[in-house]
Each structure stands twice: as C-alpha cells, then as structure tokens.
Specification:
With 280 residues, this protein is an alpha/beta fold. The protein has a domain of 195 residues: Vaccinia Virus protein VP39 (Rossmann fold). The protein has nine helices and twelve strands. The strands form three sheets. A seven-stranded mixed sheet has the order 6-5-4-7-8-12-11, sandwiched between helices. Strands 1-2-3 form a three-stranded antiparallel sheet. The protein has a two-stranded antiparallel sheet with strand order 9-10. Helix 8 packs across helix 9. The longest helix is centred in the last third of the chain and has 17 residues.
Length: 280
C-alpha cells in the first residue's frame, strides 16, 4: 500500500519562478524585505553619498534579500520536516523583527527541519545549534542549506541529532545546552506522540540549559468533529493536554502578531507564536 503524502501550503502558494523542481526535491527562494538592522548594515562603510546626472541622490534600492532552501515537495507525515510550513515563516518574521532577542546569543532550534529559522537566527546569533531526528538525510540537508546561505550567516553553526522520543542526548548536544540562551521551534506540533516528546524535551532543556525562554510557532489546524459538533484544533488541544499532564511550571504568553511581515506568505489568524518561560 502506497503511503499517503502531503504537501505544504507554502509550496503550493509559491510562484513557479521562485522554485527549481527536480522529482520530489526542490530548491526555492524565500524572498524577504530587509528589516531596519539589515538595511543599516548594508549602508555602513559607504564613503560618500552618490548623485545622478540630474543631481538627485541615488538611493540603495536593493531592499530585498532571499534565502535559498532545498526541500521536499511532498512527504509522509513522519518526514514533514523536509518541507517548510507557515509557522516557520512566522517565526522568521519574529526573529527579523526582534534582533535584540537573538543578537550575539547562542540559539538552539528544536526540530530544525530544513534549517530555515536557524539560518535566519544565524544572521544575528553568536552560535546556532540545529537539531532534529536524523531521518531522510535531514541533518545533511540542514548543512547543505547553511552552505547555500553562507553569505547571510554570521554565526557559528552546529548541526546535531535530537530525537524527542529519546531521553538520551549525544555528547555534542550535552556539551552545548548549558550555554544556550534562547530556544525556538516551529511546526513541531502535528502528532500526539511527537507532541508529548517535544514537551518533555523542552521541559528538560528549560531545567538544564542556560535558557529560560523558548519561542514556539505553529498553525492551529481546525477540523469539524461529530463528537464536538464544532471545529476544533486537535493537535493544538493535545499540546495543551500535554502541558497539563506533565504539570510544567511555565508561563506561556501568546505573542501578538502585530510585528512586521518580511516574508511572503499568508499570515492567517490560525498562526500562533508563544513565548514560554520557566517560572523561578
């Protein structure tokens, strides 16, 4: 029996001119407007203002950049990390909108997938630690995507395995976590078992790492159920149940989505970004 495959709406919404496709693999450009701190860096060091022949000031019109990402077009559920989903784009906007949170910090991403948000964080951070379960060659793919965007990335980069369903961490990760300042994750709430493992992993990190805050982005996917006679978001509800089940001592704030949108995507009302902090 052929396994059911799904395709991210992000890929379906992209202009064909922005993507080169070969079989089930694709390389896509994700364009973004430069935020103020990146525009400032681009103009730093210019010796003098330039004028055209009419005496008008020549402005730097290059105000847009692009992140180049190799990803899959369609995958089974267990390999959805090989695609990009809307939550990653929302988190990317937040990183670019709040450079002070990530500037010169050590950032740990859980479930890095193709490395999209880690690359964005790498434009600001001191070091980025990318983690995921090593299925479908995903860790190697993260490394390749960082290489594609090396002109943008300023930070050190460490790519290592972390399986939410395993309580054991490898030596590389164990050596890194104590120096982590910020934890982030996007689109990791899609399966009950994975969600439970994610909550346990995040709880362990907030207990042992230097970080006391995490940013988690997701899309609430609503379905109508006969049992509820209503539209519900089952994966999000399971996430909330996991929090209650494990009795985590966290404060959770839903961040208002009124920060600038730099990437091209549909910022739906179902998108959610949470700031999670361990209570002292």
């Amino acid at each position: 029996m052929t396994a059911h495959k799904i395709t991210s709406e992000v890929f379906a919404e992209k202009d064909d001119a922005e993507t080169q496709k070969e079989g089930n693999s694709a390389v896509s450009k994700f364009f973004f407007k430069y935020p103020p701190h990146m525009r400032k860096n681009r103009t730093a060091g210019k010796e003098a203002l330039e004028y055209d022949e009419d005496g008008d000031l020549i402005l730097d019109r290059i105000e847009e950049g692009a992140i180049l990402i190799e990803h899959s077009v369609a995958t089974e559920l267990k390999l959805v990390g090989l695609q990009i989903w809307r939550g990653a784009l929302l988190l990317g906007d937040y990183i670019l909108s709040h450079p002070e949170v990530f500037q010169n910090k050590t950032v740990l991403e859980l479930g890095s997938g193709v490395g999209f948000d880690s690359i964005i964080a790498g434009t600001l951070a001191k070091e980025v630690v990318c983690t995921d379960v090593n299925l479908g060659g995903i860790l190697r793919l993260i490394e390749k995507n960082f290489q594609r965007n090396k002109a943008l990335v300023k930070s050190k980069v460490c790519v290592t395995e972390l399986d939410f369903l395993s309580e054991n961490w490898n030596a590389t990760l164990s050596g890194k976590v104590k120096n982590v300042d910020v934890i982030m994750a996007a689109d990791v709430i899609y399966d009950d078992k994975i969600t439970d493992g994610f909550v346990k992993t995040l709880a362990k990190l907030l207990d042992t790492a230097g970080a006391r805050q995490a940013y988690v982005a997701l899309e609430k996917r609503y379905v109508f159920t006969i049992a509820d006679l209503d539209s519900v978001a089952p994966m999000y509800e399971e996430f909330l149940r996991c929090l209650r089940r494990h009795k985590v001592n966290w404060s959770i704030e839903e961040i208002k989505l009124d920060f600038p949108q730099y990437f091209r995507y549909q910022r739906l009302s179902q998108l959610t970004l949470m700031r999670i902090e361990k209570k002292i």
